[in-house]
């Protein structure tokens, strides 16, 4: 599409957007009574208006049924997760039996590594991206130590070439091939939190398998953002949080994916708990753990009903949007528009004040653009917030802006760039 740098053009795109009405399903934070242009779905998605009634419903169940709520009423808590599984499966491209809502993200990363990182003296290394989200780094390092290895020997980080912010797929594949028989696990983010780079998940998975390794992904920044086909891509396991692009609230419940080819593998270790026990037998309270079939068998503690209700509210909006296909179509346009407009801001300033480190290619990014501001980066970020544009800041110099197709408009994107230009002119003197 040929974009234009004017508000009327942005408004005309909004009029043609079949998903534009969905923003009415969300609550926008305000500053001095004026709603923010919210571009921070990469960190915390907005609250669906329906969230409160989904939670209210569970509070009523608790009020009216108390302990009987587990088994009685319209939607007994014992089975509530099943209502979410089909919806979640659509978000990540899996069978419903391959996904389950449970716990929180880093906890699930640990639990899945218990099953899928099984180092041997010969094959004990983990390949990951350099600059992964710190929680993933800490989780992986601690798992390696738990098995008696030194992270310095066991973790191979693939980094960008000579100062490049993003990774080249060929370098990732070469690192996997070069370390072949020593790799136990390839564990990548789907999209890197800092750069917004969407890795070539099918190619990484294929290379990992060719090397004889298990392949897993942390999809915190990918689930609900980009189209995923976890089953078809033959990924072994994955987990994600629901509070970013899936709008399930701060600390929202996480989701896991385990490929069905692993369901019959009785050699997999798990850190078991009663909620992973065979559902029909669970309340017999017998000795000797027997896992429920599918991803549900990785559950540990009893269902988190309220976080699940919040996730449910948001997943129903995804369902009404037709899931990821239509959202991705809009997302590509929205983010491409922001990409174009940032270039226009640079043009108007006469120098490259803003450098986008997120790949431009559609297949290598989601909604997020990570932008380095050359001069006065932090002041510019604060001025954006003061001007009602809410993105976020990641040290040392990156402003992340993520137009989210569920609740952002083309006009939001236009106004963001327009305010970036005004602010830049105000803050940066010609000498600089
Ligand atoms: C890639 C990634 N991993 C892990 C986390 C941490 O998740 P949690 O605090 O829910 O465990 C986040 C976000 O906070 C993330 O973006
Ligand atoms: N869970 C949070 C709690 C507090 C503050 C930020 C987060 C984030 O999710 C940050 C996000 N993962 C990021 O990509 O920076």
UniProtKB/TrEMBL annotation:
The protein's name in its UniProt record: Kynureninase
Binding site for pyridoxal 5'-phosphate: 105-106, 133-136, 218, 221, 243, 274
Pfam families tied to this protein: Aminotran_5, KYNU_C
Keyword flag Hydrolase: yes
Modified residues (N6-(pyridoxal phosphate)lysine): 244
Keyword Hydrolase: yes
Broad EC category: hydrolase
Signal sequence coordinates: none
